[in-house]
């Protein structure tokens, strides 16, 4: 009896709880603002938006419009971007077997940022081609960091890859700054984008959605394969798995997720470390649970971060990336200390 | 069951394994012995197809090179000398990885896979640990968990690299007895590397002595564990006597070289 109660029996419960938390965060995110709207009215209104459901939330048309045109897309974009970054972080961690791998620290985000800037400056592009440029940049950034980390020596392991990532990030960011100063008339647009922004309305949401769907599906499908990789290449091969192929696919999917997130909302750091780490502590280390919970948890986290960014110095707004770094940087040091101790 | 002909492995600039032949019949236990760095682990990896090598490896009368990875994984299970255990994974999830060769690439495990895993954990007295995190286990428990993963693979050949290092006397015996029982019950073919010569002679049907990458002696324990052979290749001063069951017992002699 007891032995049939495998760990995966607990998974639906975890996913359901995480979805509950996400829903609460989203309601909180929609609530904030000048207008006097109660949480209950938000819930009713959200139900009313569902197809075939008609509920009277008692909100005036103006208030409904505010919720629908401003708050809802904002909260949705924050959730999607946060979910993508957290899940990409978990994916990179699985591929590199390194708990500190993160889209931001690996050079993926900076690569996407540089490519996006170049695209904005050089090509008379429409918004639609930005994610493609960002994807190429993200893959290039990871590739650079990984190659540099490998050639820099096999001594450090965990730390070497991160150091290489930081070096690549600084370098690519420097180039990006150079390119953006080149084209002063685009500066405003680029700055707004770099600082991280989830307030781009429905357009921003529809832009990110297809990339989000493809990368999330790919990553979620590879959870079991990442578990196999976590025992090492030799053992994975002895289990009949082509480790290189799995690695390559997951790397592409994680870079696509990073690129989609960066393309719509700029550079937002540390979500990819904080969330998967917390998830591992709570629900165990299997990627079959880490990936879906990171997707949901990352969404909830970024919705909250956006809420804080909007309220803490209201009426002014903080860039959302500042909030995530404020939480993430101390966390990063903590994780680094723990992995150091475990390695001794 | 396993035939190896003229296998050589070159790592970097060195010939780590040179021209090794070996034969293991079905249901037999072969122990590979030899000093540190003799190439024992590398030989096992070559048999498993984990390192590039020259020469031929035949598994169950099929050339290993022509087996698909998943086919080979259903035939041979391998546990490395220093397995990486993801600390946050539960014992059950870890053992379940052994079912990988039976699960489609992006698919999920079947009820049967879970049953096999659960029964293997039962057999290894690990059922109570199923929900524990691997990182919380003692050395002996870890070694059994790795064995559980290999057994969940339901392969007919077990390649175990130093399955008893870091185990105390009681746990060594427990693991080796277990392998021996499984071999008799399920007709498994077993190849292990072992550094304790007496233990190797006690459990294995035949021994292969390696030194400097070459197979320098092979045969029944009594033929390989002789004072001249062990003295020369381990560079040690030993005394070897027949034990109570006639198998050789290796003693160190004080004041050796
Ligand atoms: N990747 C490698 N590159 C170069 N030499 C290696 C590599 N791996 C192992 N060796 C060398 O090959 C020799 C045999 O190693 P190994 O098979 O692990 O020996 P054993 O298991 O008998 O102690 C050792 O001298 C080791 O230093
Ligand atoms: Mg060895």
Automatic annotation (TrEMBL), chain A:
Pfam families assigned: FecCD (PF01032)
Predominant location category: membrane
GO biological process: siderophore-iron import into cell
Single annotated GO MF: transmembrane transporter activity
Membrane topology label: Multi-pass membrane protein
UniProt keyword terms in alphabetical order: Cell membrane, Membrane, Transmembrane, Transmembrane helix, Transport
Compartments reported by the entry: Cell membrane
CC annotations in GO: plasma membrane
InterPro entries cross-referenced by the UniProt entry: ABC_BtuC-like, ABC_transptr_permease_BtuC
Family, as annotated: Belongs to the binding-protein-dependent transport system permease family. FecCD subfamily.
Protein's name in the database: Iron chelate uptake ABC transporter family permease subunit
UniProtKB/TrEMBL annotation, chain B:
Entry keywords, A to Z: ATP-binding, Nucleotide-binding, Translocase, Transport
Signal peptide: none
Pfam families: ABC_tran
The keyword Nucleotide-binding appears for this protein: yes
InterPro entries per the UniProt record, alphabetical: AAA+_ATPase, ABC_transporter-like_ATP-bd, ABC_transporter-like_CS, P-loop_NTPase
Gene3D superfamilies membership: P-loop containing nucleotide triphosphate hydrolases
CDD domains: ABC_Iron-Siderophores_B12_Hemin
UniProt entry tagged with the keyword Transport: yes
GO MF annotation, one: ATP binding
Protein name: ATP-binding cassette domain-containing protein
Source organism (scientific name): Nonomuraea phyllanthi
């Amino acid at each position: 009896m007891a032995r049939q109660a495998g760990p995966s029996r607990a998974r639906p419960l975890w996913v359901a709880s995480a979805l509950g938390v996400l829903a609460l965060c989203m309601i909180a995110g929609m609530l904030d603002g000048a207008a006097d709207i109660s949480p209950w009215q938000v819930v009713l209104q959200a139900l009313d938006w569902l197809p075939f459901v008609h509920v009277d939330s008692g909100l005036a048309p103006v208030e409904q419009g505010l919720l629908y045109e401003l708050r809802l897309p904002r909260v949705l974009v924050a959730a999607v971007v946060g979910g993508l970054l957290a899940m990409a972080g978990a994916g990179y961690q699985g591929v590199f077997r390194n708990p500190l791998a993160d889209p931001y620290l690996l050079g993926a985000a900076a690569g996407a940022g540089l490519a996006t800037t170049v695209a904005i400056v050089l090509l008379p592009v429409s918004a639609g081609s930005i994610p493609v440029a960002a994807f190429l940049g993200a893959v290039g950034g990871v590739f650079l960091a990984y190659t540099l980390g490998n050639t820099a020596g096999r001594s450090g392991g965990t730390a070497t890859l991160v150091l290489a990532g930081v070096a690549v990030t600084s370098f690519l960011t420097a180039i990006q700054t150079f390119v953006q100063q080149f084209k002063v008339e685009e500066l405003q647009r680029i700055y707004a984008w770099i600082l991280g922004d989830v307030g781009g309305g429905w357009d921003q949401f529809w832009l990110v959605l297809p990339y989000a769907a493809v990368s999330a599906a790919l990553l979620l499908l590879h959870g079991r394969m990442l578990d196999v990789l976590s025992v090492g290449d030799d053992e994975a091969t002895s289990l009949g798995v082509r480790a290189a192929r799995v690695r390559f696919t997951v790397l592409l999917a994680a870079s696509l997720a990073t690129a989609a997130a960066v393309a719509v909302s700029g550079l937002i750091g540390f979500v990819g470390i904080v969330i998967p780490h917390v998830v591992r502590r709570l629900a165990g280390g299997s990627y079959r649970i880490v990936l879906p919970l990171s997707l949901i948890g990352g969404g909830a986290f970024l919705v909250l971060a956006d809420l804080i960014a909007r309220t803490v110095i209201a009426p002014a707004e903080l860039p959302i990336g500042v909030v995530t770094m404020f939480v993430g940087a101390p966390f990063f040091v903590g994780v680094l200390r723990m992995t150091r101790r475990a390695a001794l | 069951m396993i035939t190896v002909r003229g296998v050589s492995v070159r790592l970097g600039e060195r010939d780590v394994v040179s021209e090794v032949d070996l034969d293991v019949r079905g249901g037999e236990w072969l122990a590979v012995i030899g000093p540190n760095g003799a190439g024992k682990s590398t030989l096992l990896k070559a048999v498993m197809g984990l390192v590039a090598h020259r020469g031929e490896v035949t598994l169950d009368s099929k050339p290993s090179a022509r087996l698909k990875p998943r086919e080979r994984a259903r035939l041979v299970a391998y546990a490395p000398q220093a397995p990486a255990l993801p600390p946050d994974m539960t014992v059950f999830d870890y053992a379940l990885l052994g079912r990988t060769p039976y699960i489609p690439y992006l698919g999920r495990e079947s009820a049967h896979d879970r049953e096999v895993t659960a029964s293997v954990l039962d057999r290894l007295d690990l059922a109570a640990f199923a929900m524990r995190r691997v990182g919380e286990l003692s050395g002996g428990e870890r070694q059994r968990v790795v064995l559980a993963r290999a057994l969940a693979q339901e392969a007919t050949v077990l390649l175990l690299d130093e399955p008893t290092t870091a185990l105390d006397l009681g746990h060594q015996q427990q693991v080796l007895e277990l392998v021996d029982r499984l071999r008799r019950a399920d007709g498994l073919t077993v190849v292990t590397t072992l550094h304790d010569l007496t233990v190797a002679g006690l459990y294995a049907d035949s021994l292969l002595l390696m030194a400097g990458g070459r197979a320098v002696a092979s045969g029944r324990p009594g033929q390989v564990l002789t004072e001249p052979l062990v003295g020369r290749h381990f560079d040690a001063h030993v005394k070897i006597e027949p034990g109570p069951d006639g198998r050789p017992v290796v003693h160190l002699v004080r004041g050796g070289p």
